Batch of 2 targets.
Target 1
Amino acid sequence: MAPSAAANSPPSPENTECNLQPFFVLHKALPSNSERKSMEKTASRKRTRRRIDLSPSSPKSSEQSEAEFAGDHHLRTDAFRYVWSKIDSTIKNVLRNINADVFNDILFWVQESFNTTCSCGMPDRAKATRSYPVVTGPLSKQIYTGLVFTQNMELVDDLLTFKDLGLHLTSHGCHVANLSSFDFSAKNGIDGCLRGLLRQFLLANLDVADMSILASWYIDQGNYENPMVVIIDDMERCCGSVLSQFILMLSEWTVKMPIILIVGVATTVDALSSILPSYALQYLSCHKFILGSPADRMEAVIEAVLVKQCSGFSVGHNVAIFLRNYFFRQDGTLTSFVRALKIAIVQHISMEPLSFMLKGLSDEDSQDLWSESPVFLPELFKRAFDLPSFRRNELTETNEEILARGLSDLKRLKELWSSAVMCLYEAGKGHKITMFDLYCETLDPELHHSRVSDHHLGLETKVGMSSSDHQIRERLQNCGFIHQVIRKVRDLPEVLLCQLLKNWEKHTKGIIEIHAKVRELQSSLKFEDDKGLKQGLTDLSKRQKIQSNFNIEKDAKRLNEKTTELIIWMVKNYMLPIECIPFHEIICFTNVSKLQSALIGDPRRTIQVDLLEFHKILKCKCCSKSGNNPLPSMHDTSIMYVLTQEHGDLINLHDWYQSFKASILHPRIKRKHRLKHSPSPKKKMDTSESRKKSEASVQAQFSRAVTELQITGLLRMPTKRRPDYVQRVAFGL
Amino acid sequence: MGKEESPQVVTRRTTRSSSSSTPNSKNLETTKSCNPQPMTINDLVFGDEHISFDDLISSLPGRRSQIHELVRLLGPLNSPTIPLFIYGGTSTGKTSVVLQIFRYLNRPFVYTSCRTCYNPRVLFESILNQLSLHRKDVGNGYSSAKRCERPSDFVNLLREALLTVVNNLKGHLENSSSKKSIGRISGKMVYLIIDNLELVREWDKSANLLPFLFKLYAILMLPEVGLVYISNTSPDTYYSDTGYIEPIPVYFPDYTEEDLRQIFLRNQANQKLYSSFLEVVLRPFCRTTRRVDELSAAFSPLFKKYCEPLSDLGISPSEEMKRRLFSHLQPHIMPSLNEVFKISSRPSSEGESNKEKANRQGCTQRLRGCPAIDEIDFHMSTSAKYLLISAFLASRNPATLDASLFDSTGGSDNRKRKRNSSVKSMEHKEAAEQELLMKGPGTFPLERLLAIFQCITSVEEYTLEEEEPGTNSLGVESGDSGLMSDVLLQVSSLCNANFISKGGSCPLDGSTRYRSTASEDMALKVARSLKFPLSKYLYRR
């Protein structure tokens, strides 16, 4: 696949030819223009494109829109794969790390409760497979149950978590079965649930599912060496009666085989008691585990993926804000955030021809960013220097070196930015300042401009908090989070300050300018520490001690000031939002409206538009010229829907039918005249057929179209109160 | 804190029906090495060593008369018996007594529980497997000896299997009369024990399985078969007019307080300490329940609490100490009486959530939601919260009120009118209120939910922008993206989380009715998190 053999030279036509996907060929047949990607074109095709983009698993869908940049579509596909695999693995790692603690807790608890079960004596083989219950005490029927609180009403994010938990426990020797609410449906009853259990444990599909089979299997697996764990990931959706039946059954067998339940609870504890009857509840001896909340996970993912730049891809301010609101307001799942991110990448790569450089930019070793490009270099440069972010600089000369420098600058500035953001985040961590907010704010180019243009940030430190200047207060409101962080730093006690500096040192590693300053501050802190200690040891007189304490306090205040200055300096000089950097278009996705339309599909509107403007999709010659008048050649449903536009919210069925009939049959008269001039045999047949069209068939067409409109949710059928009227449900577009 | 880490020997009562652990561990080692031997006829008796009648009586306190009666009814060796029907409340020792009696009698029996055997086929096959000494394992692909689904097949197969077993037993008897040492089985009778019979009523829709089971004795016509039914409901609750021989009922009454004391005192390491503990707790708890399993579940944490001030668990407490221990325990008794189930959590390494956990640790969840925690402890998106509130409103408020509540002009008028209401209308209203209370939350169509949702979100956004223009700079910019996108998706996830329940109906009609099942506490919490004035919109009669 690597076309790097053809480096620097335009690829031979065969080469590009054989790389074409069938998809691509199909698309190329459309009239394509050789000019650079025209916005109008994509805008008019937005809808079709969106539909394709909605299946984000096919990255190939991205490249089809840029027919003109024929050679590099595979490069871009490569870039997409590269970027996405990086992001994907990063996210997985982050989530694994977040869950690691809880998983270990759970494992420890599982082993502990297994040991307690075993310590009261396990029955021997003959006993365990006998059918009568072995009772070793009234408490022996208790089932150890771990309640894992996912802290999210939506379950999607945690499906993977529970699978991981299963793997984690399996790797430590437990026998694990992952059941879901589908196994606890009222339809299949307890049978289905046991079947699922046996399928997972025995890996066999059995004729009759029975607990005794499980018991004898378990004993075959080595005598009571490993616990059996049953994970039910979504308790809320389970059918209560089946679940309680399952619990009662388990409680009869729990002495014979130590089954431990792990139950995922999405909402509150009350959910458990509302689903299960008390006689089932009393058999559960519950332990509580709490998974990381979705907000925490989101923080970690944002930090790892977007701030620390694992892949080189980044998003603009507006997109970030959109993502943030989408998460907090609409959906609240990490899954949909990840999906949104993926769609953003796909769209970015499909829209931005130079995006293939993403891969080269984020790779450490590759220096030749455009050596792999099959495109003529001049064209590439032209494109790069056409980018508005470069043109802003009003540099006239354009050569390879400038581009190279620009790109490396871009990379470096981004690193600076991310370490500055990390420092801010570190400082604001304990004070309810979330990464997402901070991230959105630091991306805002306008805020940055205001920061740079007026020197308030610096000024204010000199004036101090006492200044109640109106302007300052206004600005204080404007850059909320950063300012809050700075204020927090100013009031930080010494111990925490020390820790903060240590963390900063970690985050600024590799960035010489900041790192040096942080080190300097740290050493001064240590020095003062020592000094204070020495003073405390040597000076024994009380007054001096107080004095020294006072001094230390003053020193600490000074240190706080210094740290504050440092962070302000960092924010001002190094935290350049991505959208202010030249060539950012290559790596940065900024088109919110596209992402929005791809994410928040508007199905009903789309249906309406498609019904009214169907000729844009069908591209048939017969209907396109009609304007808004229904023609008989149109689809019945379309005719009907066009006709509804004339009505209010109630449509009289009879009127509607009459106009439908008219529009089907009426224009025929006109056509008859025309037919005399050009009698083609095909049309003749058509008319003779339509003449035969009886009232009944028209009615059939009519009722079918009405039903279709009802199914698409645009109409409501007549009610008993008004049997001759249908109701329009959707209005306007 | 460290409750679970150090399981105390005292609270673990090892045996109730005395399957002592020492011989087990020996057996464990032997069976681990060798392959499972084929089952013999000996496997039909209770496995453990023989116990004497005195042991039997003393191991089951408070069940002396029932044991006597059962032994009498089972009769001497090899005498045919009429089916027995043992009934009594849950956890009154029915199963244990029967099993222990068979252990004492050393007679072969087949036990099946209708709990584990959850449908007729499993029940039949389980009985047949045991009779034909068949064990499901890898070798036979975990299959049964015979496939049997219908009662008629079952009768034939059962008769066959019983006859072989009985013949075996007779042969065994003759053998053992010559060689006394092996003979563990007494008699040539086989008993079928069917436990949890009350469950059959539920899985038996056409109601012919129960009469069949009751008639089994008459159908089989084998004098060598004894049948024992165990149920926790009385024989009156079964259909008893289908002409089978009525089984002899044996009733197990609830334990008395004294019985319970004896049961709990058995196998306690420190009898004196425990009896002083029982003095404190047994009486109040006996008023709510006499079930041994419930009581022991409640007692074990309480006893740990009781022992907390003690350093040495072996001491016999003096009067003064008893008083001190009592005063230590007293505050915990009442909450423990009310709690349905409790959740413990371990102190974990996580610093953040530790505090919250510590809060919860003591706080037990009661059935009536506890109002202690102010914020919802799980994540919901804003639109889901609004939906929850609108569903709650739609369920609580009468539909006729919607217009006046959400119309800016109508609301105040309505309230005035309400104040001027006459006595009669007040009475009327009270009746309506009562009715509403009985009916629970009302149902509503999806359209109404969406309409309310639209109203409250638009109102909220309006006020939000008006009141605090500066602070939420991130929010205002995205005002146009609104909250309307995935509402239907959110409704379905609310349904999944059991906050809204959905009545079944034709999806094409669009007339599915929903009902909010969220508690008022929950709705209030959610409203508080959104700063939504829920009480303003709630219709309070």
Target 2
Amino acid sequence: MKSVLPILTVLAAIVVIWYGAAVGLNSKWTYDQAARAGQDVSFSQLVTDTMTQERPVLPAPHQVAKGLWEGVAGQKITSKRSLVYHGGVTFSATMAGFVLGAVAGILLAVGIVHNRAMDMSVMPWAIASQTIPILAIAPMVIVVLASLGIKGLLPKAIIAAYLSFFPILVGMVKGLRAPDGMQLDLLRTYNASGSETFWKLRLPSSMPYFFASLKVGIAAALVGTIVAELPAGATQGLGARLLSGSYYGQTIQIWAALFAAAALAAVLVIVVGAIEKVVLRKMGMAR
Amino acid sequence: MPVIEAKDLNLTFQTNDGPVHALKDVNLAIEKGEFVSFIGPSGCGKTTFLRCIAALETPTGGSLTVNGMSPDDARKARSYGYVFQAAGLYPWRTIAGNIKLPLEIMGYSRAEMDQRVEKVLDLVDLGGFGKKFPWQLSGGMQQRASIARALAFDAEILLMDEPFGALDEIVRDKLNEELLKLWKRTEKTIGFVTHSIPEAVYLSTKIVVMSPRPGRITDVIDSTLPRDERPLEIRDSAEFLAIAHRVREGLRAGHAYDE
């Protein structure tokens, strides 16, 4: 109960500010319409009108909630208007990209930790890769792959992987290097091989770092997938929903898709967190 | 033949502030079954010398043999068990699992592992704690588990680097007493680094006093205390105090031209 109250307070404050902003931002259209008809607008008229516009600049919270509800529960889930359908498309590409990115991140991290040449050469490139705006290269990747006949899930997954491998790479390098000198010396006194050191010490030591980086990585994969769905031509996924909403000025549709994406991200991170808890408890590392 | 023999051993570290002479002309012979303590202020090279024996550092001059071999060959032959300052138990392994770590690496069979774990846990008085995780044990118990880990395989030499340095005095007294019993039962050769004079005198058959800058041996004292029977009360005897006095003198002499 104690933790619920502050959350509800903040939520209430956000809703109040949002309603205020909706009235302010949408009032211009109301005033323009009234001026065209040569009428005056009272305050109560203003408020009711700004709450119920078809294409408001900023939809009011209840409009977004209604849009979200209709998108999720008001359609057959196979319908092109269903957010569940589009969410599912985005989810599958996110997961494919996340797995690709995680595998790439882990393999690169293992290489960096064990090979000095890779340590010196890979990291700068990995960092450079993240400084390129994803919005700039996503369309190029989609177009190039489409010209090769590769369409659908894979190009999106590649862009998702491009964003998600980096946090996992950084987390795993840190994690695999977590054992201190003493622990490495101990294995040296046993004359342990490099692979024994990896499996018995480095990998288990990296687990807390691994799960922390997975949480960042899966959220990044979702962002990557949505960005990959934005370029022209995409008709499926939450990103496509955002784009078509902005084409036709359907602000309510945009906001509903945004909230659906946020909810999806939250669920993914919570699921990774739950797996983390189970694994660390089984390993005896959670108290 | 001595188990460990150092002749004119030198070790110089190259640092950004120039070379540091960690060990200078160290000559020492340790016979089988001895309990040798290395005592001195920090920077005197006592830990460095122990690490040279374990082949964790490489001397830059002189000769050092362990079991008649080079230290690195001795390491590969798994001739010694090493106990570090911190217990360093793996938090994701139970106590039994931690003790099995060297046994797994050395390729013992499952049945043999279980049997050895049981044996060494009894040896350090931790019988029945095999299924616990390290965080469920006190600091002293964790350090005992790490000693059990070093005893699990049949190394004749036990190297201990300030193993009880982080423990309070009451626990330390108890562990010292237990360590002597354990040494008597296993007949191992023990090299023990400490900065506590009573601990060094109480435990050792031979006390090596060292001093810093450059790290060197200033005195080697063969203990006159009885080897077989050393109750904790022996620390109040005149003989004990006389040895402790000589250690203190040796430490002070090493500091004389420090200024």
